[in-house]
Sequence to fold (336 residues):
Amino acid sequence: MKKLYKKSSLPFLCLALILTSCKVQKDVASFEAMNTFMTVQTYGKKASVTNEEIKEKIKDLENHLSTTIKDSDIYRINDNSGSYIDVKQETIELIDFAKSMAEKTDGALNPALYPVIKAWGFTTGNYRVPDDEEIKELLSHTDYSKILIQDEKIKIDEKMMIDLGAIGKGYAGDCAIEIMKKNGISSALMDLGGNVQALGVKPDGSEWTIGIKDPLGKGAVAAIKIKDKAVITSGGYERYFTENGKTYIHIFDGNSGYPVENDLLSVSIVCNSGIYGDALSTSLFVMGSEKAHEFWNKHKDFDAILITKDNKIIYTNNIGDKISILSTFDQIEIWK
Ligand code: ADP
Ligand code: MG
Fold:
């Protein structure tokens, strides 16, 4: 009897599943913002209005956080260094967060590194290799403890400049998730220029599968299954320029004033918050694998996947059952 019941209910179950999944509305929005390409895939009745709202919010964020858009909060702070400047509460909170992450990572993340980053031509596009003297002088204006916050005002020392480029997209993703939740959406996946953030699971109830990009080529070197998580990657392959056969990447070491050069090709952070993941992916990339390991050991409130130059993949134990390795590595290391 039991067997018969099972047999006959199967086609019905399949049909019911197909019908329910057909009913789920989907909207995909693709647009350019924050100097990158973004795709937001949202499921549910209010999918398309939600995506419109998200697009508007991200453009608005870009307009007050960009270092290059005149009249943005960040532009005005940098343009008026030495004086207290009125900015949006949201900008204050982001700067405060960036400063606290700078302290937590011992300056690996440094929102005040912009004088150096700008001199190399990143964000403006006028790429060049500054000489050592220029770098030394610029480095003397990158002390993040001199970013002062007073009520709704921010002040930086003269000649200082700040940049939230390392956390902006992660924050934008968190804002998008908030908008989705407010609109009753429970399933969505977005890719904000390499920052992947998922809300819930797929409409069919299974987890999202996210590819970890091959930092040296096309395709993915690993895949991870996630639910309600951010997977944020930093790597030298995303933005760089080449001069006299040497490649200079867009992530900087605040100690040397030079683009990061260590044993890493990419760092992906898997965690609950986009902004935290974004701050950490940049920070751990700057640290290199050894310091990154120490940092993870100390905090353990996130997971990570690191790809090294000597063809090794490292990942944290906690996500071991969620990862599939798709490429041939010389070594696999698991942090426990
Ligand atoms: P991407 O924006 O390419 O995804 P990241 O999140 O790692 O990569 O952010 C890199 C951006 O952050 C750079 O383009 C630059 O504006 C800024 N940046 C570079 N190095 C640092 C650093 N050490 N600390 C803080 N911000 C940095
Ligand atoms: Mg980042």
About this structure: Confidence is low (pLDDT under 50) at residues 1-7. The first strand starts at residue 26 and ends at 33.
